[in-house]
Amino acid sequence: MAKSTSSQYKTPQTKKAKPPKTQQNKPVKVFMQGEPLSPWREHIHEIIFEADTPAGKLFDIALIVTIIISVLAVMLSSVESINKEYGQWLTYSEWAFTVLFSLEYILRVICVRRPWLYIKSFFGIVDLLSILPSYIALFFAGAQTMMVIRALRVLRIFRIFKLGEYLGEAHALIRAMRASRTKIFIFLYTVFIFVIIFGSAMYLVEGSENGFSSIPKSIYWAIVTLTTVGYGDLAPHTSLGQMLASAVMIMGYAIIAVPTGIYTAELAKEYKRDVTNIACQNCGEEGHDSDAKFCKYCGCCLE
Fold first, then answer.
1. What are phi and psi of 301, to 5 degrees?
2. Residues 144 and 77: beta-carbon distance below 8 Å
3. What is the pTM assigned to this prediction?
């Protein structure tokens, strides 16, 4: 029985366009996703979270200077002589900084699309911890020492330098470290085996009469010696022990070059990459290739 022409000639099916591949191993800034903000909130967001505009750069510079001064004020208040003479002024300045940081925290929560997710993010928690000690100090004495947490906020200094030579370098260092983590782990595992062998050998050679009273303590000596730190609290006294210690010291200098070479090789590969500081309008992530049309983290079109 003859087959029908419809079965002989099949209509070619058009291939569906595949969405751009995204990097699933990096979490997207989810607090930036959601419904568009109102114009005034979008304007505040542009000033606080972006550094491409003159207002954004000025805000970031003023914020970092304020953070550094506030941390210095906390440090100076711990000096007894300075605290006796200027303690009242330092207290006034600290409360002024606390009010400024509180206003900044409120504005940050207001100008994001999903405020609760920003509050739970790393920098959201850091922002909150930077203002809580002052308010806690009203009820509990000594809480001011927690205000050194504000030093973590200086990490935002990289947001000012959204030029390729600064932000790109920071990302390149992180990517090189991630790429070399397996090799470095194997290297550290090998070093761990060496210190166990050297520590056990030194325990047998020197013994408890020379301070090597146990294998863990001897392993501690091997770590201190292999890393070329040399505290001097433990030292071999026998000729054989001193020979073994000399071998560990020489090996320590050779071992230092190994992780440096591994990391440098991965860093050289990163320098060959051509990335830009263009931020995705949807997720806010940066570090895209210079010829990228879509965000490699969320897949949205880059404008």
1. -70, 135
2. yes
3. 0.53
